[in-house]
């Protein structure tokens, strides 16, 4: 098994969250380029397919992540989305049946983890057999770690963003939520090993966690900057001798220089609005007098939000208006899936 890992190749992520991982509009999808020159020789013995599962959610006490849900018919906000990558000619290519980008919402600033997006990463060999556990089982977690970076950051009109705003930690946080066993839920008895719960508020909705033995087969993002798009780059590194940095876990955005790449891929991400934008959707008159088909009853801020969603996601104004109203006012059946 160890011999297998020594010959795993490195090849050339970006795409989010709830609300909305995916949408119909293509104008706001970043142009993605895979790496032209893989850093190590190509091999068919390592991962040949990668599957990413994203889910928008919230937290219960004990840092228990729970997938959110929306009323039936809401399409601008998807609480679960799946992307797959296949290795072709030494490069990782987003499959044709995958969404072209991940459309997400940023959190409300000052309320950390209010709008978390969970990520689960699965690996498969050339026969289609899942090999995710080989990066965690038998002590392998002590040598592997996923890292995240950003490139091609622009606003939604393709204007480049410069300065401190380009720093990864200004765009999002990522928390490792790996468990032992790797494929079992913490709420069902698995031990959390990717991070340690330091504190949480009374509701459990804003947990504070610190890295412990980070791997990144599962974890969550909290997006901070809104109305931007970028390429999310993901690397899995093999660091058999020094995964830790002087005994301390490495930050999600600070890989060890010169470490061997196992995989490297890119997914487009579009942060099309903030969760706080929904507060702008309100009536100029009493809600009891509300006509669901009457766009004119909205405040100016509400109209601007509807117009923004329509433009960004290639919706009609009527469709955007009805969807936001439905999301905020109709019942959504609670989800019981995708816990960590």
From TrEMBL:
Signal sequence range: 1-25
Keywords: Signal
Taxonomy, superkingdom: Bacteria
Protein name: Lipoprotein
